[in-house]
């Protein structure tokens, strides 16, 4: 009987019973289904299309040793889908080199650790986005604090004012160095009227034109902080008055209703040198013309 389709190569298959029937090369797997027994040996296998791997891939030490110098030089695209939620990637010394594009899709949270359970060190830049964290950093200017007040000026009164806006106290920086700066941290103003009198105050930066009584001299407190208290309206005192020349501006103002105010920071810082910016606090009573005694206290910091 002739052969319908002769072999296209010179290969001749052995005429042995175990090699003639493919069912003799089959076996059962763990679930009882028949599978073909295949031994790859040392042959090279070319795979086209998708390959599904089992959950666990076991590699022996000899297999790992053979993979230590694996290098993929052609353009390669590796796509990983449905990566498990938590995976353990064990550290190895295999120097694999992949040249090309690697795409990883659908990758959830992954835990990476070495075989000792310790974190794997990472070098280079790491960018992380962290929400719901607020960091508040407060700094305080360096320098010593100094205080001045008129609490002991008189046993029964402080500085007496009326309903005319008058200069009460001026401050300046007596240092010849422009780098020395003084900052008014806080000041307090109090009066002895239990009827909740109303006091208006104004801060001026720059020289004022002072009239009336003689202008007092400067008194130094701290290292180079200076003040001068103007004459009030007590008894027969004439009291000082002022006008605002060009170049001087009101920097801050406020109203006191009651006995005191506190925690009100000064308007600007005081500079030394040839361009000192003098600050002057002026006050008046606005609810009636009766004279009223007031006390004041200041805290400054000479900045470093």
> What share of the residues lie within helices?
under 10%
Largest sheet: 6 strands, antiparallel
CA distance, first residue to last residue:
114 Å
N-to-C order of helices and strands: HEEHEEEEEEEEEEEEEEEEEE
* Average of per-residue pLDDT values: 79
Low-confidence stretches: 87-92
How many discrete domains?
2
- Based on CA atoms alone, the radius of gyration comes out at 46 Å
Number of strands: 20
**Helix segment tally:** 2
Residue fraction in strands: 25-35%
Structural class: mainly beta
- Looking at the structure, what is the overall shape? rod-shaped
Task: Present the secondary structure layout.
Layout: H1 17-20, E1 26-28, E2 34-36, H2 61-67, E3 71-72, E4 77-80, E5 97-98, E6 101-104, E7 143-149, E8 159-161, E9 166-173, E10 181-191, E11 198-205, E12 209-212, E13 219-221, E14 225-229, E15 240-243, E16 249-257, E17 260-261, E18 269-271, E19 279-285, E20 292-303
Parallel strand pairs: 3-5, 4-6
Antiparallel strand pairs: 1-2, 7-20, 8-20, 9-14, 9-19, 10-17, 10-18, 10-20, 11-16, 11-19, 12-15, 13-14
Descriptive account of the structure:
By secondary structure, the protein is mostly beta strands. It folds into two domains: 61-122, no CATH class; 143-303. Helices cover 4% and strands 34% of the residues. Strands 7, 8, 10, 17, 18 and 20 form a six-stranded antiparallel sheet that branches. The radius of gyration is 46 Å and the shape is rod-shaped. The termini are far apart.
How would you summarize what this structure contains?
Helix content is 4%, strand content 34%. The protein is built from 2 helices and 20 strands.
